[in-house]
Amino acid sequence: MFKRLCDSRVENSGSWLDDEEAYTSWADADAAKARPLLLLLGEKNTGRSTTVSTIVQKLKARYKTPTERSSRVLLAWYFFPSLSDKADKGDPTPARTALKHIALQLAEQDMALAKSIASICEEKDNGTYFTDVSCESLWKDLKLGQPRGDTMYYFIFDGVEKLSKMHADAGTQFFDVLQEASHSSATESDGSRIRLLVSGSGDAVKVLGGFESPTINIAKSNGSDIELYIKREMRKYDIFQGNDSKDEASRKKINDKLLEMAGGSFFKVQSTLDRIKDLVDSGGQESELDDLLTESDWGREAISKNVVAELQEQLSPQNIEEINELLIWVVYGFEWLSVDQLEAALFLRFGSTPLQKLAKKLQGKYSRLFEVDGQVITVRRDLLSLVIKDPKQLRSLDDDTPRITATITITKGDITTVQNFLWALFQKSVVEKFEFEPLAGQITQTKSEIRVNDSDAHLAIVMQAISFLIKKPDARTETLGRYLVWNLPIHLKELNNPERDHKVDNAAKKDIGSMLFDILGQGTIIRRHWKHFVDVPLFGNTTQISTLLAWLQDPDVSGHFGVYQMDWLDKVISSPSPHRTLLSSMAREVGHRWLRSSENDPWEAYRSLRRYLSLEVSEGAADASDDSLVILSTDEESLALDKAERWCKSILQVTDEQSLWYERVGETARKVDEFDHAIAMFLKATKMPGASWTCHRGLAHSYHQAGKLNDACVSQKKALEILYELKEPHPHDIWVTNMDLGKWYFELKERDQATIYYEKALEAKPADEAYYRILEANLTSQSNGRTLDLIETMSHETSTNGGTSLLGSALLLMATDEDTYEKYFTSLLSLTSSRHGMLGMVLSAMDEAIQLAADKELLFERSALRLYKGLALYYYGNEADENPLTSAVRLWEECHSDARKVIEETGTYVQWKWMWLGGQVISDIVCHYFKEATAANTEASALAKLGEITIGHRISYEDNRVSPAESYMGAYETLQGNFTAVRAHFRKNMLTAHEMLSDDTDENDADAYFVLFQCLLHTGDETNALIAFELTGPIEKTIEMRLGEIRGEDKAAATEILEFAKEKFSPNDAAPTRYTAVLDELQRRMDLGNVESEKTITNETYQRLHSLLAQKRPATEDGDGPNQPYEITYSDMVINWRYFCNGNCGGTWDFETDINICKYCWDTPFCQNCLPLLQQGTSKMLACDAGHKWLHVPRWNLRESTGLRDGTVMMGGEIVDGRHVGGQRVKIKEWLSTIWKEWDIE
């Protein structure tokens, strides 16, 4: 919703806020006397929500970049959905939803807070916490009212009056929380550290703030926004946009009159502008314009009624019927329906397709009633109440309709005569409809009223669902199919609402009964419309099942059933588990589709069947040995699969084993990551008569996902062998199978073999991806000459899709691969720079790829290509470009702009790849200016440039780590000897590290030490930087990790103990404490024997687990307790992050080798092989500079680097020949206290 509001905002709107003292004081985080709560009052159509979105944007812009101000600002907001929003109907706890959204946004901006919140959620989540918790508890538990350190929170809530209307109790709770937060914040001695903005209409908002909270009434202040809106809409409608005096006078007259009568309401303005547009389009006169402007001064209700009346008068009867049908779906549908879905609904209703598209009508003659926002279509809010009519009111109107009644009296006549008469009457009245010839001049169509009501709407949707389901799939209505299938039970529940006065007539009930039997009793409907039943909620939703059952138990619904139908219904009702029995026919069809049909993905059917088999079975029935009463609850996937398969065998009465059956079980197992089970099933399938080549392909993929690459290749070759023997194999199957085989050989580092299969794929079907994979194989080989020849050939050949070269297309595919594009582009540029003229070919191909990415709207790929084209120009140059450095920086600026826009719109965790790209781009830009600043040797100009970059080039304010701009700025100050300034520069990062190391969780400690390392490195404190870096190293496996690794016969017991550990302990509990407690629990169970065991877990199993885990018992926290450290190996460690060498090798560093980290650049390490090449200039690198300096970080030694195990480090000493020598071993806390003291942090 926030994005929609931002997109619809008029440019420069909200500028009046800068003149509102109440707002400016509240928005100033340094204003100590500012009141913590600001109220924004506005009725609907005053632009209140849009103004709130403007405030959010203003605050984001103001506080996105850290400055020397005293507090760090985190901003979060929530817009309560409007009463007509579909999301509103599905959210029973909107107040809690708001607080969760706030917490999530805080987490996105603060890494330490994110881990703290994650820890709290894991500790609290017992299955019901987040559904039962009160607003007050949620606020306290998530610590939303406790900003840490010097942080300040800005929380913004819009539309709170909707909350009080929808959920009065929750609204009261929510208001109590906000009142408490504002009052607590107001009494703090250091000023309010929580600022709240609450917007809405009505007395509830006023009561919230009392008399002390500043208040802004939008309707009294938004005149400038309305004027901007009038100008924009007149430009959009092209109304009086000429430069002549007449148009200018008309514009001024309209503007002045609308401003005068608006009273802060955009609705009055929009309604009048719509009418003016219609008047201009129809060639109206100026006098009519004057009359219209006079009428525009009417009240809102009068204007609304006039709009509906004019539509009623102007539209044809057919248009009104169409509008009424749209109202049914737009107002009473349970989801937002797209234009395509609404067109399908109209076809379903009227059986024909109008010449004019619905989208055109919604933008044209229907636009005064409906609003279109992207794919969301709504009724204009001020008109909604006017088109919704109470059914009672409609019946009273219908009672006045003229009627003809007649009574037939038979005085004489035998039975035959009477029967003939009644039959003839029936024929005339029912069949022939008394087809009288119409009188001349009386062929007219009665115009109905624009209206809708809930009872008739729900019934209409149900009847349309019947119409859809009984017919064969039709392309003209298919877009509506999923909605009808998924929501039919919900509409039926609304129709059966006992509070409704309007009842469904018996004829409709009979149709509903017949349809329900067809769906539930026979399975024909699900077979016909299977794709709409995939993942349908009905299979596991007891509320929906109960709704259908209640309908069927109504005598008016099932009274016309035949013997077979009644037998089925009696069986359902008398069943000990009626919910299961009701869906049994459907479930049988799902089971058939899962294991006995190859028409669909088996995983689709299995998902639905799993939900069905999770439905409860009555206690008496559950004890039976019947396989048809299988119950799935929290079973592991392999056990659940086995149970579901046994159920299918029983229900489908399978007696003969078929290859297809085991193939589909195997494919399902593969989809749920049960690879051993999948391999076993596929092996069974391959050994049966008639086994398809797809069995071997499935086996190959299972081997591959299980990490058994050689076995995968053998099975895939067998699949290819069978495939080639087929009479007419599909070229695509051959292409895909060869491509997969090529990729697996590439993973095995057998690049020549990989190339062979890529070339075979090309024989089946020419495709750019195969050429790209051949290029990939060559780029990672040692055959430089062959690779250069290939690149040159690809630059001259046209893509299989035409329009660009093969090389250009391959480079776009290279940019698409997020995991490898950095390494491949680096290798490509380094290699092609070695042969004259080749780099120019690559740069031309990059231009083609950039244009192709733009044509396909691939924004990330275009930005990645720009990044590396910039790097190519910057480090290798270009004969065709006189100023490659300037061109490179321009390309990076374009990348930065795109990355910043995407991240600010979508959030950081959602777009991690953009975070990385944005950081890399900023690093390159700032590095350029850093070089210029240090080369210029002019402190003032250097600081001006770097200062500008520091402020303007930061992706967001969410990352606690040192940013690229901060890295270079700090390094520059250190080089200048300004140590006081550099410490002030990094102070906020150091405070963040202090916060993270002082909180209740140790999960974020490694991140905190890395922040410490960055700050200390760029301030020249190399000794302490090395210590901090050592503390980011690999972590010892926890008890949870070790239990999760156990496989085979002990896996079930390990899973049970793991659940015990999760329930009993918080992640904040010390690792040795958790480990010891698990060992104690195992010992307890061993002592008890099998007494408590409800499952088949034996005492021997617990003994094996205890013995295995006891060998790896960690040391106590101080290292001097009864449990001394065991002899640790690398298999006992978890590498929680890796560094990538910035040289041309493309290698990763994982603590087992030496590394060299630049003291100036942002996150720029080099391995021992690449650094000498950079220093000597023998190989160009796409980062750093030969004149920089590096900190040598030695290999992380398991026996010497003991800090993470026993809590000590070697403090002091010095760096000699790149090694830390000397010093004194002290506790980590003691070392940290010296750092905090030196930085004056308490």
From TrEMBL:
The TPR repeat ranges on this chain: 735-768
Record-linked Pfam families: NPHP3_N, TPR_8
Listed InterPro entries: NPHP3-like_N (IPR056884), TPR-like_helical_dom_sf (IPR011990), TPR_rpt (IPR019734)
Nephrocystin 3-like N-terminal domain segment(s): 13-199
Organism superkingdom: Eukaryota
UniProtKB keywords: Repeat, TPR repeat
Keyword Thylakoid among record annotations: no
Family matches, as Gene3D superfamilies: Tetratricopeptide repeat domain (1.25.40.10)
Protein name per the record: Nephrocystin 3-like N-terminal domain-containing protein
